[in-house]
Design brief:
- The protein has a four-stranded parallel sheet.
- It has eleven helices and four strands.
- By secondary structure, it is mainly alpha-helical.
- The longest helix has 25 residues.
C-alpha cells in the first residue's frame, strides 16, 4: 500500500503532462484583449474607455530577427503601457504595408485600403461595447501615413476619438543619453535589434546576425553622410525614395539594396538589451504621462 500511492501520483503527473499542450508558454497579461474574458472587459470598462492599438507588420528583418518583429514588439510595448495605466490593448492585424520587402521569403504585405478598413471596422466594434478613445501605435515605419489616415478617419467618420501615439508622446519623451553614432543604421539594425533583445529576447538569433553589404543608387549614396548626420532635408528626401517596391523602378527595395535585408551597416554586435530597455522605458513613461494628461483633460466616459 505504501508503494501504491507514489505510483498513483506518478501516473497522475504523467497524465497531466501528457494532456497539456507541449508548446504552450503564454501567461495571462492584464488588459490584453486576446487573453481577456468578456467579464474582464466589462470590468475594465468601469475604469476606462481607452484603447491602444498597435499597427505592425510581418516582414523580413535580416537573418537574426523574426518576421514578426514589428507587430510583436508593438504589442509588447502596449502591454507594458497597460500595466502602468488602465487601457485596453487590442491588436487587430499582424501584417501591414511592406511591398519593398517582398524580395525576401516570409514577408506579407497588405494594401493601405485593407489595413484602414479592417481597423475602422474593429474600432466600430469596440465603440459598440463602450470604448471611446483610441491611441494608435505605429510599430512599423511603412505604416506611418496609414496610421495618420486611420486616426483621421476614426475622428471624421465614427463616434470615436483617436490620436497617434507618436504625436501624443513627443512632448513627454526625454532625450536619450546614447551618443550619436554616425553610421547608417535603419531597418533591422542595431537600434531595432536592441529593442528586440529586450522585448522578445527568445526570438533573436544573434549567432546569425550578419552585417549587410549595401548597394544604394549613387545619388542616395552621396547624400548618406548628411542623412546619418541628422540633416532633416536629406533625411526627408532619402526616405521618400528609399525602401520602395521593386515595381516602382527606383531600385530601392530591400532585396535590391541589401545582401541580408538589413538596411544599415552598423555592427550588429553593438546591439544590447540595455539599449533596448532604455528606449522602451522612455516610450512607456511618455505614454503614461500622456494618458494621465488626456484623462485630466477628458475624464473617462465623458459624454
Amino acid at each position: 500500500m505504501k508503494n501504491f500511492i507514489p505510483i498513483i501520483c506518478l501516473l497522475l503527473i504523467f497524465q497531466i503532462g501528457y494532456t497539456q499542450n507541449p508548446v504552450w508558454s503564454e501567461q495571462k497579461v492584464k488588459n490584453y484583449l486576446p487573453h481577456m474574458t468578456t467579464i474582464d472587459v466589462q470590468e475594465l470598462l468601469k475604469k476606462t474607455d481607452m484603447v491602444i492599438i498597435p499597427i505592425g507588420a510581418l516582414e523580413q528583418h535580416g537573418n537574426h530577427l523574426p518576421i514578426g518583429t514589428d507587430i510583436i514588439a508593438g504589442i509588447e510595448r502596449c502591454k507594458l503601457i497597460a500595466q502602468e495605466r488602465d487601457i485596453l490593448v487590442a491588436p487587430i492585424l499582424l501584417a501591414g504595408q511592406s511591398p519593398y520587402h517582398m524580395g525576401f521569403a516570409g514577408t506579407i504585405t497588405l494594401s493601405s485600403e485593407t489595413i484602414i478598413k479592417v481597423h475602422l471596422e474593429a474600432v466600430n466594434s469596440l465603440l459598440n461595447h463602450g470604448f471611446k478613445r483610441f491611441i494608435l501605435m505605429n510599430a512599423h515605419g511603412g505604416n506611418r501615413a496609414i496610421t495618420s489616415l486611420c486616426v483621421d478617419q476614426i475622428n471624421q467618420t465614427t463616434a470615436g476619438i483617436a490620436v497617434s501615439l507618436e504625436d501624443a508622446i513627443r512632448p513627454f519623451l526625454t532625450r536619450e543619453s546614447e551618443e550619436q553614432n554616425y553610421v547608417f543604421d535603419r531597418h533591422g539594425g542595431v537600434s531595432e535589434t536592441s529593442g528586440a533583445l529586450y522585448l522578445l529576447p527568445t526570438l533573436v538569433q544573434m549567432d546569425k546576425a550578419v552585417t549587410a553589404k549595401l548597394t544604394l543608387p549613387s545619388h542616395m549614396q552621396n547624400m548618406l553622410p548628411e542623412v546619418v548626420a541628422g540633416n532633416p532635408t536629406a533625411n526627408l528626401v532619402f526616405l521618400a525614395e528609399g525602401l520602395k517596391a521593386e515595381e516602382t523602378g527606383k531600385r530601392t527595395s530591400s532585396k535590391e539594396m541589401s545582401t541580408t535585408g538589413v538596411w544599415g551597416v552598423r555592427n550588429l554586435n553593438e546591439a544590447s538589451a540595455e539599449i533596448g530597455k532604455a528606449s522602451v522605458d522612455n516610450t512607456v513613461q511618455a505614454a503614461v504621462k500622456f494618458i494621465d494628461k488626456w484623462n485630466q483633460l477628458r475624464p473617462s466616459h465623458t459624454k
